């Protein structure tokens, strides 16, 4: 996951320890996809402690050789199917304004599941430092 995050060239790369700890503590809201035994993609997420009806998706990455085949959408649908019985019916994520692939991904998942999609500013560039893009909050909900 650490390697794949770095290979995307656009995701913030967290430490190996951060990914290991994440999977240890949030296994039901995170997933990896494998193709022929090799890592093809991952999603990290959590249910918001202040509002467990929300699945907060943090990072989504797919190996660039395997993009455009529905891997990311399938991982997100897998997570949404998994949290629905526990009462989580909404998805939140943040996306930078220039990430059209990610915007298209979440728009497609909203359409597939009949969810409405809305967006509002969340974090300004100055909140995130290091020349980071701002991050808008995307909300998918019934
Ligand atoms: C964003 C990302 C995860 C998409 O993965 P993917 O497996 O290629 O996406 P999917 O094949 O599941 O596509 C899902 C939908 O998004 C659309 N989409 C995906 N990439 C797109 C692109 N570059 N341009 C336009 N639409 C795109 C697909 O057409 C599809 O829509 P459809 O069902 O209406 O045809 C992948 O491009 C990636 O890893 N990017 C780098 C990391 C990143 O930006 N992550 C997101 C921010 S956390």
TrEMBL record:
It holds the Pfam family Acetyltransf_1. Coiled coil: none annotated. It comes from the Bacteria. It is an enzyme of class 2 (transferase). The lineage of its organism: Bacteria, Bacillati, Actinomycetota, Actinomycetes, Mycobacteriales. This is L-2,4-diaminobutyric acid acetyltransferase. Pathway: Amine and polyamine biosynthesis; ectoine biosynthesis; L-ectoine from L-aspartate 4-semialdehyde: step 2/3. The keyword ATP-binding does not apply. Keywords: Acyltransferase, Transferase. It comes from Gordonia defluvii. Its EC number is 2.3.1.178. SUPFAM superfamilies: Acyl-CoA N-acyltransferases (Nat). Belongs to the acetyltransferase family. EctA subfamily. CDD domains: NAT_SF (cd04301). Residues 1-135 form the N-acetyltransferase domain.
């Amino acid at each position: 996951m650490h390697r794949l995050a770095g290979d995307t060239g656009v995701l913030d790369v967290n430490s190996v320890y951060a990914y290991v700890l994440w999977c240890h503590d949030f296994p039901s809201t995170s997933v990896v996809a494998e193709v022929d035994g090799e890592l093809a993609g991952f999603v990290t997420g959590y249910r918001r402690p202040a509002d467990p009806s929300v699945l907060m998706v943090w990072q989504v990455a797919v190996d660039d050789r395997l993009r455009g085949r529905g891997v990311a959408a399938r991982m997100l649908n897998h997570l949404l199917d998994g949290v629905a019985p526990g009462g989580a019916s909404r998805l939140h994520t943040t996306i930078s304004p220039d990430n059209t692939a990610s915007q298209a991904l979440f728009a497609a998942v909203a359409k597939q599941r009949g969810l409405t999609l809305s967006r509002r500013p969340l974090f300004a560039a100055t909140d995130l430092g290091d020349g980071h893009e701002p991050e808008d909050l995307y909300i998918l909900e019934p």
